[in-house]
Amino acid sequence: MANQDDNLLKKIVAHAKEYGFVFPSSEIYDGLGAAYDYGQYGSELKNNIKNFWWKAMVQMHENIVGIDAAIFMHPTTWKASGHVDAFNDPLIDNKDSKKRYRADVLIEEYIAKIEGKIKKEVQKAAKRFGDSFDETQFLATNGRVIEYNAQIKSINDRMKSAMETEQLNELKTLIEDLGIACPVSGSKNWTEVRQFNLMFSTELGSLAEGANTIYLRPETAQGIFVNFLNVQKTGRMKIPFGIAQIGKAFRNEIIARQFIFRMREFEQMEMQFFVKPGEEMKWYDHWKEKRIQWHKILGLGEDNYRFHDHLNLAHYANAACDIEFNFPMGFKELEGIHSRTDFDLKAHEEHSGKKLQFFDPQENQNYVPYVIETSIGLDRMFLAIMSASYKNETLEDGSERVVLKIPPALAPVKVAVLPLVKKDGLSEKAREILETLKFHFNCQYDEKDAIGRRYRRQDAIGTPYCVTIDHDTLQDHSVTLRDRDTTKQERIPISELTNRIEGLVSINTLLQKL
Ligand code: ATP
Q: Would you say residue 338 has pLDDT above 90?
């Protein structure tokens, strides 16, 4: 299974590059680690995802507004948020290969190997017992599996305790006890474990002297917190209300890999919802429900999502979960939903000396609101869509195609306008139709090569509809409309084309399901 999925990720990376979705950043200089550029179709898809999120969160809610804060913020912001002191990863270097690793990831990979062994035991037993195989019972009773699970638990407990108490030497001892070797050199010659802050820093001002260290924001949330009062006052917002934002965030990730899943420069779509203290659990459940619904109406497969509740909560949270998606690498975090208490606003009050409170006329008192956050990585959402949409299919006529079954409302190009041949006035007629459609949809015109090859090109970039103009069109003013997913063609009058396509590809079709 693992191999097959690795292959899927490789295929998606290659397809994304070949068809103008995602390129390695500055590729002519051999690229830059964990930085990617979105190409002509990728940026369209990205914009459509943003649009869908923004509309669902802002436009559809009277009490949510959006902002666009600067990436650079006053350095005290990051002191108050805890990022200067605590946004760290534990690092370890192998002395022979000089390669650097996250100590916790080395341990997690070791655990994953044991999990792999459990999976193998299950597969072997399933084969042996056939139809009568009961996986749950097997997992609970098989001696070897019980032993493996006990090992996993013991390693996890040691790792968590070392991380929580910041016993970095204990992490190193654990790596040594497990006999973990560097995947590159194969040696177990490790340095001590050190904490490494993930924030990128730079200097403000042209003079090095007196220059201030500032940071590229590692999350967009703080831009919302510092504007809480500005927005509340100018928007006359009443609790409960939300502030949404889409923007870049930067983290100096040590192990940045798995394509656009973990990058050093990425984009977040975040919403902070301010509520009355004591009501946060009700809103936490509300937003969990709302956010999973947003995902599911895209039709990428309900089984591809699952909630993962956090047992070890960050110091500022009183509840937290992830929405995980079934990526080619397995179920991984796509979105986080966190009940952040009043931690951030209180910390900014303390550091700024400004009151960040809400006067509640019903209670006739001021309070610092509690916050529920929904935070989704735009790039991870992009990868989720690509992973679920990428299909290798054999058609009825036996031919093969690669098709991206991107939800039509998010597809980069909505309609391709294709004259059957380049002559007999068909190109002119096709261009005439294009001139009307282009005011409504992102269209593409293509008259090169045989029609079958043109359909394949549109399938490969996920275009949901192709309009084909043939000789009959000149007489009956009708065209064929080809559906990407079924490949079925239907003849419809030109006069009905815009309305028909609109009903199939508009973002409203999704929003109405929310
Ligand atoms: P992870 O555990 O995978 O590092 P996180 O828990 O640190 O993620 P959050 O701080 O909760 O992530 O950020 C919210 C969202 O931002 C994540 O759910 C993810 O979709 C996205 N995100 C975080 N880090 C990255 C990254 N390096 N590259 C791309 N997206 C990211």
A: yes
Asked if 4 and 41 sit in the same domain, the reply is yes
> 310 CA to middle of ligand 1, Å?
14
Highest mean predicted confidence (pLDDT) among 118-122, 311-315, 342-346: 342-346
End residue of a domain, out of 333, 359, 391: 391
Distance (Å) from CA 302 to ligand 1 centroid:
22
Asked whether residue 79 is domain-assigned, the answer is no
Euclidean distance between CA atoms 197 and 321, whole angstroms: 24
Ligand 1, from 197, 375, 378, 383: best to mutate by most atoms within 8 Å of Cβ? 375
As to burial, measured by CB atoms within 10 angstroms (0-12 exposed, 13-18 middle, 19+ buried), residue 186 is: exposed
- Phi first, then psi: what are they for 465, rounded to 5°? -135, 140
pTM of the predicted model as reported, rounded to 2 decimal places? 0.89
How are beta strands 88-93 and 194-197 bridged, if at all? Answer: antiparallel
Mutate to test the pocket of ligand 1, among 25, 245, 255, 266 (most ligand atoms within 8 A of CB): 266
Strand, helix or coil for residue 393: strand
Pocket lining: 379 vs ligand 1, CB cutoff 6 Å: yes
Residue 377 Cβ contacting ligand 1 at under 6 Å: yes
- Using the predicted structure, report yes or no on whether residue 198 has a pLDDT greater than 50: yes
- Residue 52 is predicted with a pLDDT of 98
Residue 12, φ and ψ in degrees, nearest 5 = -65, -40
Whether 126 has a pLDDT exceeding 60, the answer reads yes
pLDDT at site 397: 86
* pLDDT score recorded for residue 311: 75
State which amino acid sits at residue 23. F
Counting residues of the chain whose pLDDT is more than 90, the rounded percentage is 88
Residue 78 inside a domain? The answer is: no
* Residue 294 maps to a domain: yes
Look up the domain containing 318 and give its range: 1-73+218-391
Same-domain pairing of 399 and 379: no
Measured in angstroms, how far is the CA atom of residue 73 from the centroid of ligand 1? Answer: 20
Q: Mean per-residue pLDDT for 299-309?
A: 96
CA angle in degrees (0–180, nearest 5) for 36-39-41: 130
Is a pLDDT exceeding 50 seen at residue 164? Answer: yes
**Residue 207 belongs to a domain:** no
pLDDT score for 3 = 43
Q: Are residues 164 and 181 in the same domain?
A: yes
